[in-house]
TrEMBL record:
UniProt pathway annotation: Amino-acid biosynthesis; L-tryptophan biosynthesis; L-tryptophan from chorismate: step 4/5
Keywords: Amino-acid biosynthesis, Aromatic amino acid biosynthesis, Decarboxylase, Lyase, Tryptophan biosynthesis
Family label: Belongs to the TrpC family.
Name listed for the protein in its UniProt record: Indole-3-glycerol phosphate synthase
Gene3D superfamilies (UniProt xref): Aldolase class I
GO biological process, one term: L-tryptophan biosynthetic process
Membrane-spanning intervals of the chain: none
Keyword Lyase among UniProt keywords: yes
Gene Ontology molecular function: any one: indole-3-glycerol-phosphate synthase activity
EC identifiers of the protein: 4.1.1.48
InterPro entries the UniProt entry points to: Aldolase_TIM (IPR013785), Indole-3-glycerol_P_synth (IPR045186), Indole-3-glycerol_P_synth_dom (IPR013798), Indole-3-GlycerolPSynthase_CS (IPR001468), RibuloseP-bd_barrel (IPR011060)
């Protein structure tokens, strides 16, 4: 079984358990549920935006523990102060050491949009995303059919959430539909963990000029941001480069400063 299959299999169990312990009526009664989400797309395309989407990721299947000490509130605040356009918060518990609570804490600490980074396979998770204060959700083409992608994207939009669709190869471009706000090209092959930033350049050329596209994973050099911007990318999702440092907020600040000097 590939790691992606393992994650999805565990996710199905987790979602069924959550449906029982926290029914939809409880999700719908939260204060976040009544809030109007912020626009991720606007935050990335605003004039002068850094486009950096700074991620809070404690550990990952590919690298193990990245940072056991960073505090989510301090890190989220520091990312925003450093000039990040948006945050990404892992909420998967078993494989990434994340939690819904982390996203709620980040929500209370920042005013920029927050991406719920998880493996979404069920509409319940979209209601949950809204209830914990997310603004945008991730749909991963590699784990969804074209029909499932459209159904989930439509439902997310009906809740006022924006949709980031993640693709990794030419075939997955067929998952794009008109409910998708932003297309993410993941430089990491989620089955074997190999990374190659060229994936963004290759697939980016195949997207219509009107698509708002972001590059995800394995970005560690400020110079790459300049090249990706030249290729029309508006956002850059960065986790490990920041989280592997003792002070992820400082690492983000230095990275954005370095981009601005190029
Ligand atoms: O990060 C992993 O090892 C991973 C493994 C399996 C599925 C997803 C995985 N990561 C999710 C992501 O897409 C990244 O957290 C995100 O793009 C940031 O990547 P990075 O800057 O390389 O931490």
């Amino acid at each position: 079984m590939s790691i992606l299959d393992k994650i999805v299999s565990r996710k199905k169990e987790e979602v069924e358990a959550n449906k029982k312990s926290l029914p939809v009526s409880r999700l719908e009664s939260t204060s976040h549920f009544k809030r109007s989400p912020l626009s991720f797309k606007k935050a990335l395309t605003r004039r002068g935006a850094s486009g950096i989407i700074a991620e809070f990721k404690r550990r990952s299947p590919s690298k193990g523990l990245l940072n056991g000490h960073a505090d989510v509130i301090a890190t989220a605040s520091a990312y925003e102060l450093a000039g990040a356009s948006a945050l990404s918060v892992l909420t998967d518990v078993d494989f990434f050491g994340g939690s819904n609570e982390n996203l709620e804490k980040a929500r209370a600490a920042v005013t920029i949009p927050i991406l719920r980074k998880d493996f979404i396979i069920d509409e319940y998770q979209l209601l949950e995303a809204k209830a914990i204060g997310a603004d945008v959700i991730l749909l991963i083409a590699a784990i969804l059919s074209v029909h499932e992608t459209e159904k989930l994207a439509r439902f997310a939009r009906s809740l006022g959430l924006e949709v980031l669709l993640e693709v990794h190869n030419e075939q997955e471009l067929g998952h794009i539909n008109h409910f998708v706000d932003v297309v993410g090209i993941n430089n990491r092959n989620l089955n074997d963990f190999s990374t190659d930033v060229q994936t963004s350049f290759r697939l980016g050329e195949l997207l219509p000029a009107s698509a708002v596209k972001i590059s995800e994973s394995a970005i560690s050099q400020p110079a790459v941001i300049v090249q990706l911007k030249e290729a029309g990318f508006r956002g850059f999702l960065i986790g490990e480069t920041f989280m592997k440092e003792a002070d992820p907020g400082k690492a983000c600040e230095e990275f954005i400063k370095a981009v601005n000097t190029l």
